[in-house]
């Protein structure tokens, strides 16, 4: 079975295996951007050099160069490519058929999603932390790429796809172990995917998912959910308060790869503005907070960040 976006799926020994085609480049989901402006590079270098307690907030645009699509990028984001929309928290919680559809799609997409590697932007931010330049990193992404790159002073604002929680007892399971349970429950199940979406999602028809068997919590038998904040849900208050304290302790804020359209991240820009912190934004295309930034750069994150010396 083949995917039009450069992914192949094949059936073998009772499980779905993912193959990568040569057509799937890391730039497939990165919007067009102007050439690097040397003066802008120098301005960002000055901004970073003057920062002593730098807080960085990253969004989907930092991971598109690793081959993970986003939602809002012009021409290449999910909203531009299709009329499909991400799953809503309320629907997942209240409907067993919605959970069956979600887990069938996630089962197909997980091998590909979990194989993504950090790009040079993730590596650069990890290096800034090692050199004592980056005080704290807040990511809106759920792909674990910052962790793979070695970042430790990190808050995953919207959770992480690598973990699964029971909605009844709260027991936590590694996503990889759940994949093995799905394979045992569905030894002959197969599906043809139709397109690629963010967060490990794959498009499947309703007919394809009806026979998929969903695993329940091994501890109590309750329904399982990835440890992420779905659309329509809210970030836990304790996590919001923790990040707000990190912003209050910082002396500058750099946004990397986010349009800041989602309030869960935008609220911290408001906190930074109230504290009169200098704000820089690196994102291809406009953001919700361009008018609040002292510096705005429209460049690829992985192209620009490695040029900055954190020492």
UniProtKB/TrEMBL annotation:
Zn(2+) binds at residues 166, 169, 217, 220. It is found in: Mitochondrion matrix. InterPro entries: DHS-like_NAD/FAD-binding_dom (IPR029035), NAD-dep_sirtuin_deacylases (IPR050134), Sirtuin (IPR003000), Sirtuin_cat_small_dom_sf (IPR026591), Sirtuin_class_II (IPR026587), Ssirtuin_cat_dom (IPR026590). Its main location: mitochondrion. Binds 1 zinc ion per subunit. Its EC number is 2.3.1.-, 2.4.2.-, 2.3.1.286. The active site is at 158 (proton acceptor). It catalyses: N(6)-acetyl-L-lysyl-[protein] + NAD(+) + H2O = 2''-O-acetyl-ADP-D-ribose + nicotinamide + L-lysyl-[protein]; N(6)-[(R)-lipoyl]-L-lysyl-[protein] + NAD(+) + H2O = 2''-O-lipoyl-ADP-D-ribose + nicotinamide + L-lysyl-[protein]; N(6)-biotinyl-L-lysyl-[protein] + NAD(+) + H2O = 2''-O-biotinyl-ADP-D-ribose + nicotinamide + L-lysyl-[protein]; L-cysteinyl-[protein] + NAD(+) = S-(ADP-D-ribosyl)-L-cysteinyl-[protein] + nicotinamide + H(+). It comes from the Eukaryota. Acts as NAD-dependent protein lipoamidase, biotinylase, deacetylase and ADP-ribosyl transferase. Catalyzes more efficiently removal of lipoyl- and biotinyl- than acetyl-lysine modifications. Inhibits the pyruvate dehydrogenase complex (PDH) activity via the enzymatic hydrolysis of the lipoamide cofactor from the E2 component, DLAT, in a phosphorylation-independent manner. Catalyzes the transfer of ADP-ribosyl groups onto target proteins, including mitochondrial GLUD1, inhibiting GLUD1 enzyme activity. Interacts with GLUD1, IDE and SLC25A5. Interacts with DLAT and PDHX. This is NAD-dependent protein lipoamidase sirtuin-4, mitochondrial. It comes from Erinaceus europaeus (Western European hedgehog). The lineage of its organism: Eukaryota, Metazoa, Chordata, Craniata, Vertebrata. The gene is SIRT4.
